[in-house]
Protein backbone atom coordinates (compact mmCIF):
# COMPACT_ATOMS: atom_id res chain seq x y z
CA UNK A 1 0.00 0.00 0.00
CA UNK A 2 2.92 2.36 0.71
CA UNK A 3 3.49 2.89 -3.02
CA UNK A 4 -0.07 4.27 -3.34
CA UNK A 5 0.62 7.00 -0.77
CA UNK A 6 1.46 10.55 -1.80
CA UNK A 7 4.57 12.18 -0.37
CA UNK A 8 2.43 13.98 2.23
CA UNK A 9 0.76 10.71 3.26
CA UNK A 10 4.14 8.95 3.53
CA UNK A 11 5.32 11.86 5.71
CA UNK A 12 2.31 11.28 7.98
CA UNK A 13 3.13 7.56 8.30
CA UNK A 14 6.78 8.32 9.08
CA UNK A 15 5.78 11.08 11.48
CA UNK A 16 3.39 8.74 13.28
CA UNK A 17 6.22 6.23 13.75
CA UNK A 18 8.42 9.02 15.11
CA UNK A 19 5.72 10.10 17.57
CA UNK A 20 5.33 6.50 18.72
CA UNK A 21 9.09 6.17 19.18
CA UNK A 22 9.26 9.47 21.06
CA UNK A 23 6.52 8.30 23.42
CA UNK A 24 8.20 4.95 23.95
CA UNK A 25 5.13 3.19 22.56
CA UNK A 26 5.55 -0.36 21.35
CA UNK A 27 3.34 0.25 18.32
CA UNK A 28 2.06 3.11 16.20
CA UNK A 29 -1.52 3.94 17.14
CA UNK A 30 -4.19 6.20 15.66
CA UNK A 31 -3.28 8.95 18.12
CA UNK A 32 0.25 9.02 16.66
CA UNK A 33 -1.26 9.38 13.19
CA UNK A 34 -3.29 12.37 14.42
CA UNK A 35 -0.19 13.95 15.97
CA UNK A 36 1.67 13.52 12.67
CA UNK A 37 -1.22 15.13 10.79
CA UNK A 38 -1.08 18.09 13.17
CA UNK A 39 2.62 18.50 12.30
CA UNK A 40 1.89 18.74 8.57
CA UNK A 41 2.23 21.95 6.61
CA UNK A 42 1.25 22.93 3.08
CA UNK A 43 -0.74 19.77 2.43
CA UNK A 44 -4.41 19.05 1.77
CA UNK A 45 -4.97 17.80 5.31
CA UNK A 46 -3.30 20.87 6.83
CA UNK A 47 -5.51 23.05 4.60
CA UNK A 48 -8.60 21.23 5.85
CA UNK A 49 -7.55 21.57 9.48
CA UNK A 50 -6.76 25.27 9.01
CA UNK A 51 -10.07 25.93 7.26
CA UNK A 52 -11.90 24.36 10.20
CA UNK A 53 -9.94 26.51 12.68
CA UNK A 54 -7.86 23.74 14.18
CA UNK A 55 -4.50 25.35 13.39
CA UNK A 56 -4.87 27.72 16.35
CA UNK A 57 -6.08 24.89 18.61
CA UNK A 58 -3.45 22.21 18.01
CA UNK A 59 -2.28 22.46 21.62
CA UNK A 60 -5.84 21.76 22.78
CA UNK A 61 -5.90 18.59 20.66
CA UNK A 62 -2.52 17.49 22.01
CA UNK A 63 -3.73 18.13 25.58
CA UNK A 64 -6.88 16.08 24.95
CA UNK A 65 -4.73 13.20 23.66
CA UNK A 66 -2.54 13.44 26.76
CA UNK A 67 -5.60 13.32 29.01
CA UNK A 68 -6.89 10.28 27.13
CA UNK A 69 -3.54 8.52 27.62
CA UNK A 70 -3.72 9.30 31.35
CA UNK A 71 -7.12 7.53 31.34
CA UNK A 72 -5.45 4.45 29.82
CA UNK A 73 -6.75 5.36 26.36
CA UNK A 74 -10.40 5.68 27.34
CA UNK A 75 -12.36 8.23 25.36
CA UNK A 76 -14.33 10.87 27.22
CA UNK A 77 -17.53 9.11 26.09
CA UNK A 78 -16.29 5.86 27.66
CA UNK A 79 -15.35 7.69 30.88
CA UNK A 80 -18.81 9.29 30.93
CA UNK A 81 -20.47 5.89 30.41
CA UNK A 82 -18.49 4.45 33.32
CA UNK A 83 -19.50 7.47 35.42
CA UNK A 84 -23.11 6.51 34.70
CA UNK A 85 -22.33 3.17 36.34
CA UNK A 86 -20.84 4.90 39.37
CA UNK A 87 -17.20 4.47 38.31
CA UNK A 88 -15.19 7.69 38.55
CA UNK A 89 -12.31 7.25 36.10
CA UNK A 90 -10.59 10.46 37.22
CA UNK A 91 -10.57 9.16 40.81
CA UNK A 92 -9.07 5.85 39.67
CA UNK A 93 -6.42 7.68 37.65
CA UNK A 94 -5.61 9.92 40.63
CA UNK A 95 -5.20 6.93 42.96
CA UNK A 96 -3.02 4.99 40.53
CA UNK A 97 -0.86 8.06 39.86
CA UNK A 98 -0.57 8.71 43.61
CA UNK A 99 1.02 5.30 44.05
CA UNK A 100 2.85 4.81 40.74
CA UNK A 101 3.43 8.34 39.43
CA UNK A 102 1.85 10.58 36.83
CA UNK A 103 1.14 8.80 33.57
CA UNK A 104 1.28 5.33 35.11
CA UNK A 105 -1.87 4.24 33.26
CA UNK A 106 -0.71 5.59 29.90
CA UNK A 107 1.36 2.55 29.01
CA UNK A 108 4.31 4.77 28.13
CA UNK A 109 7.56 2.97 28.75
CA UNK A 110 10.09 4.53 31.07
CA UNK A 111 13.01 2.77 29.36
CA UNK A 112 12.59 4.42 25.97
CA UNK A 113 15.94 3.21 24.67
CA UNK A 114 15.02 -0.48 24.68
CA UNK A 115 13.66 -0.66 21.14
CA UNK A 116 15.57 -1.16 17.94
CA UNK A 117 13.97 -1.64 14.57
CA UNK A 118 10.62 -0.63 13.16
CA UNK A 119 7.49 -0.01 15.13
CA UNK A 120 4.52 -2.13 14.18
CA UNK A 121 1.18 -0.53 13.50
CA UNK A 122 -1.56 -1.19 16.03
CA UNK A 123 -5.01 -2.35 15.05
CA UNK A 124 -6.55 1.14 15.15
CA UNK A 125 -3.75 2.69 13.07
CA UNK A 126 -4.06 -0.12 10.50
CA UNK A 127 -7.80 0.47 10.37
CA UNK A 128 -7.22 4.17 9.67
CA UNK A 129 -4.81 3.39 6.83
CA UNK A 130 -7.12 0.76 5.34
CA UNK A 131 -10.08 3.11 5.53
CA UNK A 132 -8.04 5.90 3.93
CA UNK A 133 -7.43 3.60 0.96
CA UNK A 134 -11.16 2.84 0.74
CA UNK A 135 -11.98 6.56 0.85
CA UNK A 136 -9.48 7.31 -1.91
CA UNK A 137 -10.87 4.49 -4.07
CA UNK A 138 -14.45 5.63 -3.46
CA UNK A 139 -13.49 9.14 -4.56
CA UNK A 140 -11.74 7.66 -7.61
CA UNK A 141 -8.43 9.16 -6.54
CA UNK A 142 -5.35 7.37 -7.82
CA UNK A 143 -3.30 7.90 -4.69
CA UNK A 144 -3.94 8.04 -0.97
CA UNK A 145 -3.20 11.52 0.32
CA UNK A 146 -2.93 12.85 3.82
CA UNK A 147 -6.45 14.24 3.42
CA UNK A 148 -7.73 10.66 3.02
CA UNK A 149 -5.90 9.67 6.21
CA UNK A 150 -7.49 12.61 8.05
CA UNK A 151 -10.93 11.69 6.70
CA UNK A 152 -10.38 8.10 7.84
CA UNK A 153 -9.40 9.28 11.32
CA UNK A 154 -12.70 11.14 11.58
CA UNK A 155 -14.63 8.08 10.38
CA UNK A 156 -13.00 5.44 12.59
CA UNK A 157 -14.38 5.16 16.11
CA UNK A 158 -12.00 6.03 18.90
CA UNK A 159 -10.27 8.78 20.79
CA UNK A 160 -8.84 10.68 17.78
CA UNK A 161 -12.26 10.92 16.10
CA UNK A 162 -13.87 12.04 19.35
CA UNK A 163 -11.24 14.71 19.95
CA UNK A 164 -11.45 15.96 16.37
CA UNK A 165 -15.25 16.11 16.59
CA UNK A 166 -14.98 18.05 19.87
CA UNK A 167 -12.90 20.56 17.92
CA UNK A 168 -15.36 20.79 15.03
CA UNK A 169 -13.58 18.43 12.63
CA UNK A 170 -15.95 15.68 11.50
CA UNK A 171 -16.11 13.60 8.35
CA UNK A 172 -18.93 15.79 7.04
CA UNK A 173 -17.30 19.16 7.78
CA UNK A 174 -13.97 18.02 6.42
CA UNK A 175 -15.55 16.64 3.25
CA UNK A 176 -17.29 19.97 2.63
CA UNK A 177 -14.03 21.87 3.09
CA UNK A 178 -11.94 19.54 0.93
CA UNK A 179 -14.40 18.73 -1.83
CA UNK A 180 -17.09 21.39 -1.76
CA UNK A 181 -20.72 20.34 -1.41
CA UNK A 182 -20.05 16.93 0.12
CA UNK A 183 -19.98 13.42 -1.22
CA UNK A 184 -21.20 12.78 -4.74
CA UNK A 185 -24.32 10.65 -4.95
CA UNK A 186 -23.93 7.23 -6.47
CA UNK A 187 -26.27 6.72 -9.27
Give a structural overview.
The protein is mainly alpha-helical and 187 residues long. It has one domain (2-69, 109-179): Orthogonal Bundle (Double Clp-N motif), CATH 1.10.1780. The protein has helices at 7-23, 30-39, 44-51, 58-70, 76-84, 89-100, 123-138, 146-155, 159-166, 171-179; strands at residues 27-28, 120-121. The chain has a two-stranded parallel sheet. The longest helix has 17 residues, at 7-23. It is globular and about 50 Å long. Mean pLDDT is 85; it is low at 109-115 and 182-187.
- Which assembly state applies to the chains in this document? single chain
Count of helical regions: 10
Strand order of the largest sheet: 1-2
What's the number of structural domains?
A: 1
Give the full name of the CATH homologous superfamily: Clp, N-terminal domain
Q: What is the CA-atom radius of gyration, in angstroms?
A: 17 Å
**Would you identify the CATH architecture?**
Orthogonal Bundle
Mean pLDDT score: 85
The main β sheet shows up as:
2 strands, parallel
Beta-strand share of residues = under 5%
Please tell me what the overall shape is.
globular
Under CATH, the topology can be stated as: Double Clp-N motif
Helix/strand-derived category reads: mainly alpha
What's the level 1 CATH class? Answer: Mainly Alpha
* Number of β-strand runs: 2
What's the end-to-end separation, in Å? 29 Å
Low-confidence stretches: 109-115, 182-187
Helix content: 55-70%
InterPro entries: Clp_N_dom_sf, Clp_R_N
Domain Clp R: 2-187
Keywords: Repeat
Protein name: Peptidase
Amino acid sequence: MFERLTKDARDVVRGAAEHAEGAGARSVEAEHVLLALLDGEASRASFGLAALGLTERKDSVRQALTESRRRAGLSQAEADALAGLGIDVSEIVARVEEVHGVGAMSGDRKDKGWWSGRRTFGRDAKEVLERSLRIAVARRDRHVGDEHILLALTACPGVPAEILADHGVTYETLTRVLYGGGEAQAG
